[in-house]
Amino acid sequence: MTTVRAARPSLPLRSVSASLAMTDFAEFYRHEYPNSVRLAYLLTRSAEVAEDLTQDAFTVVHGRYEDLESPGGYLRVTLTNLCSRWHRTNRRDERRLRLVHAGSVPHDVPTEYLNDALGALPYRQRVVLVLRYWSGLSEAEIAQTLNCRPGTVKSLASRALTQLRKEVSS
Amino acid sequence: MTDEQLEELLRTTLERDATRVPLAHPEWDGIMRLRHHHAPPQPRRLLRLSIAAALMLAFVASVAVATRFAADGTQIVASPPPATTPAAPTTLQPPTPSSTTTSPVPFVTTIVPTVTLPSPPGTAQPPTSVVGAPTAYYRFAPDLDLAWTDQGRGPEICWRTPIDEQCVLDAITGPDQSAVNVVPSSANLTLVLVHDSHEDLARRQDHLIVTLANGESFGTPINWDQPDLKIGIVRIDSPADEIDSLTTAGQRLWPVNPGD
Q1: Which of A1, A111, B60, B142 can pair with B122 through a Cys bridge, CB separation 3.0 to 4.6 Å?
Q2: Residues 6 or more apart in contact with residue A133 via CB below 8 angstroms
Q3: Cα distances (angstroms) measured from residue B113 to each of B24, B147, B235
């Protein structure tokens, strides 16, 4: 069972559902929906896909909401898995999306360079960075979400940051 | 750029990127309506689908049968039930590899159970522990005693043939549900021991398809004489090194890896 611990104070707090004691699924949905769509968007880079996958994830969670110790954590794992599955089956579409982004965004600020570089990262490296620097999860929590060892998370993050640094400095 | 600067830039970038996504934010009921068209089929609709599928299958089967009749003009004869306990002549009879030698049709569809070697006189039915033996051997044939053990390496059988020889340990390997041991018995016989973990006898494989090195194949019944032991036996009147492969229901049992 995935558990959600409080995020570290120095990082943005995204997954706080466990501490809110939400009993009503509609309320849980209202609370978690925005950040879930944003997480899916950061992982897929498509608003439509992000919305679809988020709805799918909520549908999964709804089916077993009563039995879940930590619906927020379960939702995050489900959503990450759905994004991963989507990524596996839609690599071609994703490359096309990346090209559209690259052609339409002016490269005049470092964040845009970084944004493109993020989109070019392998999926698992990207998801580690998003969960670490946007969701504010610890390495252990990311490892739980991705069902891998914390060492793997560390290694993925290190490689991703090295690649980003290379892209930005070039 | 330092690590801290890069991390800060990354946070800013992700934050900015995340705010780009438009949030339609439908209520939960909205999602349920959106997902309604993915609802599983109702029982009546399921029934209709099942009937249609069955009719379609029946049609395809009848077309296939008619085509086959037209193609070779042969008659399809239902396979006789497997001979579980063949009559016990006093001499050994070779297997009758009739399927591959008489018909070019894939042998899987035309397997007729052939009579393997009959139970030789002197075989305990069911096998019983050999009195006085240090291990609980079971006498499967006059020249074959079997015991099995698990010494931490997984289940193994120990066989001795002739019965006064030293016991030979042999690992039981194979696909999940079934496995075989090929035991070269004396007098150029091969005893194939089939292990099947299914409790239900009806679910166990009742035929083994033997392919010889010369390309001949034949189906032969597996005699499950000992439901408690879950070991079936096939006796083949060929040396073990002339057996190329053993399969059952399309599943290769031996050798497990063709390169072995």
Answers
A1: B142
A2: A11, B7, B10, B11, B14
A3: 67, 29, 14
pLDDT tens digits, B109-126: 333 433 444 454 544 444
Instruction: Tell whether pTM > 0.90.
Output: no
User: Nearest 5°: CA angle at A135, between A134 and A136?
Assistant: 90
CB of B198 less than 8 A from some CB of A: no
ipTM: 0.74
Three-state SS sequence of B207-260:
EEEEEECCCCEEEEECEEEECCCCEEEEEECCCHHHEEEEEECCEEEECCCCCC
For A39-91, the pLDDT digits (tens) are 999 988 888 888 888 888 888 888 788 888 888 888 999 999 888 888 877 76
Amino acid of residue A88: R
| Bridge pairing between strands B223-226 and B178-184 | unpaired
| Contact between chains at A130 and B13 (C-beta distance less than 8 A) | no
Per the DSSP assignment, residues forming a β-bridge with B147 are B158
The 10s digit of each residue's pLDDT in A83-141 is: 888 887 776 555 555 554 544 444 445 666 777 788 888 888 999 999 999 999 998 88
Mean pLDDT (chain B) is 64
Spatial separation of the C-alpha atoms in residues B226 and B238, rounded to whole Å? 24
Nearest CA-CA partner of B92 in B226, B216, B190, B214: B190
Amino acid letter, residue B35: R
Find the chain A residues whose C-beta atoms sit closer than 8 A to any C-beta of B: 12, 25-26, 29-30, 33-34, 37-39, 41-42, 47, 50-51, 55, 58-59, 62, 110-111, 114-115, 118, 129-130, 133-134, 161, 164-165, 168-169
Q: How far is Cα B260 from Cα B247, in angstroms, rounded to an integer?
A: 15
